[in-house]
Design a protein that fits this description.
80 residues, 4 helices, mainly alpha
Length: 80
């Protein structure tokens, strides 16, 4: 999945699922963590121009991107 298309599909599917879940549910929190993991991986594997295009095509703001990454970190810390 380390390609633009791979990240596009994975993030689009997870963001779609996220919109269908209740914000208070554990499944929502887990889905946010998963999206955050994909955000970190995309930053690692994609070129900056690809990353900007990915965020733009998915409609993810910088603020939302950081929020997903924060959820990922919170999940890692909470699991420790």
């Amino acid at each position: 999945m380390r390609t633009f298309d791979g990240f596009m599909v994975a993030l689009a599917e997870n963001l779609f699922d996220l919109k269908r879940l209740s914000v208070a549910s554990p499944a929502y929190q887990e889905k946010q963590r998963q999206v955050g993991r994909y955000c970190y991986e995309a930053e690692e594997y994609l070129l900056p121009t690809e990353l900007r295009m990915l965020k733009g095509q998915l409609g993810i703001t910088e603020r939302a991107w950081r929020r997903y990454k924060d959820a990922c970190i919170a999940g890692i810390i909470g699991d420790s």
